[in-house]
Protein 1
Amino acid sequence: MEKGALLYEGKAKQVYATQDPERVILHYKDDATAFNGVKKAQIADKGVVNCRLSAYFLEMVRPTVPVHFEKQLSPRDQLCRKVEIIPVEVVVRNRIAGSFAKKLGLAEGGLLSRPVVELFYKSDALNDPPVNEDAALALGWAKAWELLCMREYALEVNRILIGFWDGLGVDVVDFKLEFGRIGQQVVLADEITPDGARLWERGTGRHLDKDVFRRDLGDLSETYREIYHRVFGEQVS
Ligand code: TMP
Ligand code: ASP
C-alpha cells in the first residue's frame, strides 16, 4: 500500500490517501506542540516511538474495542481504516491533574474514587472547550448511542491501560481518545500515545509523557526513548 495525496496535516501526524478509498496511511512526525500550537519543537524519534506505541496499544484493546488501526507499514507509517472523525474528544481521569486540578482548585496527584469521563469539543480555533452530552447531541455532533459507545470504550481502554502500565510500575493519570464512525460503527481512532496521556512513574511521580515538554521538565526525546525501552525491551533503532 503506497501513500497517495496528503488529505490532512495535523500537529503530530499526516493523513494520506491510498489506492483503497476505505483506507488511509497515518504518518507520525517528530513535531511536538503544546498549548494549541503556541509551543513547538522537533523531538528526535518521537514519530517512531509514538507510531509503534500506538500500534501496540490499539492491538491490545482490539479484542474488546473496535479500532481504526490495521497494520504498521514502516517505523512511522500505519495503515488504518478511513473514519469520519466525531468532533468530541473523550478524556478519562484516574487522578487529579492538568485542567481538572486547575478548574477545581485542587492539588495534582490525588486518586479519584472512580474514573471521571469528560468531553471536549475538537476545535483548534476554540482551543478544545469542555462540552457535555446534551450539547454534543443538540448540536448534532454525535448520536446518543455513539456517545454511550464512546464512554464504554474509553472506560474499557482505561481498564486495559491501567493493567498494562501497573506491571511496569507506572500510574495512568489521564488520557484523551478520539473516535470515528465507519457506517453504523463507532471505532477508536487517532492514537494512544504519551502525547495524549499522563503517565507517572510510581514512587517517584516522574512524568513519562508530553508534560515533560509542556512544562519544561526535561528532554522529551530521552523520555520517549525510555518509554520505548520499557515497553519493548529494546532501544529505538
Ligand atoms: P487536561 O488535563 O489538560 O485537560 O488533559 C487531559 C489529558 O488529555 C492529558 O492526558 C493530556 C491530553 N491532552 C491532549 O491529548 N491534547 C490536548 O490538547 C490537551 C490539552 C490534553
Ligand atoms: N495538542 C495540543 C497542541 O498541540 C495541546 C497539548 O497537547 O498540550 O498544542
Protein 2
Amino acid sequence: MSTRYESAKEIFAAAGVDTDAAIAKLKSVPVALHCWQGDDVTGFDQDGPLSGGIQTTGNYPGKATTPEELFADMEMVMKLNPGTKKLNVHACYAIFEDGEYADRDKLEPKHFKKWVDFAKANNVGLDFNPTFFSHPMQKDGLTLSHPDKEVRDFWIEHGKACIRISTYFAKETGIPCVMNIWTGDGFKDIPADRMGPRMRYKDSIEKILSETYDFNLVKPCVESKVFGIGVESYTVGSAEFTLSFASEHKEKCLPLMDNGHYHPTEVVSDKIPALLCFFPELALHVTRPVRWDSDHVVLLDDETKEIAKEIVRSDALDRVYIALDFFDASINRISAWSVGFRSLQKALLMALCTPNAELKSLQDKSSFTKLMVMQEEAKLLPFEDVWAKYCETCGVASDLSWFDEIEKYEKEVLSKRI
Ligand code: RNT
Ligand code: ZN
C-alpha cells in the first residue's frame, strides 16, 4: 500500500500537488455529523410523527429509539470513518431524566448534559439547532411568522433557550457552536399576503438574536428554502429573505445554504465564492436532492465535488462551517451516515489534491484551451492511493472492511431492536 502511495505522491508532485500536506490539512477540518440520520428525525421529546415541512421515507429496521442506542450508533460511525467530526444535535433530542419534562420554550442546558458528556468522551465539538417542527405550537404551518403573538413568543423563547444551550456547548467543549435556525413556515396554496409573514419572521429572529451571546462562541445561522412538503406555494424564509437578513446582521449571524433548497439548475457550489466576497463566514448543509429536497445520502457526485472544490479554491476551509443534512430511512442508517461522511471527506481530499494554483493561472492568462485539457487530465490522477493513505493515517479501513463491521453490528445489535 505505501509503495502505491509513494508512487501516487510522485505523480501528484509532478502536477504541483503536495499530497502529504493535503492529508494533514483535511485532518484539521471538522465536518458535522447530524444526529437525526439515526432515528429518522424523531427525537426524544415527543411521541408524534415528523411534521412541518420535512419528511423521511422508508422503514428499515433497527432505528435508534433511546439516547443510549443513538450514542452507540453514532460512536460506531465516528469509529469507522476518517476525519475530524463534530456532532450536530437538534433541540428535540433533549434528554430528560427521572420523569422530568420541559417544553421547547423551557429547555435548559441540563437537558443536554448527556450530549456534552458524549461529545467530551469522543473529543468532538457540538453544533445545535432549535426544532421548529413536530410540535403542536407549530400552528397552521407557521411558527416564528405566525400572526398570533402567543405562537411567535413561544418559538422566540425556544430560540433564545437554544442560544443559551449553544453557549453551554461551546464553553464545555471549547469549540464554537454553530446554531442553525430553520423553520418550515409557509403556505400550501397561494397566499394573499407575502410580506406580512416575512416582516414577522424578521422581527422574531431579531428577538431571538437579542439574547446575549459571544459571537466567537456561538454562530447563529439562518437557512433558506425554496419550498417544503405541504408548503409548496410560499416559503417565508426564502433565499432573498434569508440572505438579506444575514447581510443586515453580519455581526451576529451567518447565512446557511443547504444544497437541496434551491431551484434544480441552481448550484450551491457557485454561490459559495459569491457569498465569501461579502461574508466573513458562512455555513453549509450538504445533502443530495433527487428531483426535490429529498435528503438522499450524500455521494461522491459532481456537485459534492464542486462544493468541496469551491471551498478549497477560495482558501476558505476555516470560513465555511460544513455540516451534513440527510435522512434516509430505507437503508441501514449507520451505512447511510458512513457513505455520506466518507463521500464528503473524499470530495474535500480530491479538492485539496487538485492543482488549483496552476489551473487558476491558466484562467488568468486566458489559456482556456489548456485549462480544459488540464482540468480533464486532473480527473485521472491516482486519487485512490491518497485516500487509502488518509484512511490509514486516521486509523480506519480504506477497503470495504468498514462495511463488514456494519453488517456485523446489524446482525448483533440492530436486528435485536424492536
Ligand atoms: C429542512 C432543512 C433543515 C432540516 C434539519 C433537520 O429542509 O434542511 O436543515 O433538515 O434541521
Ligand atoms: Zn438543511
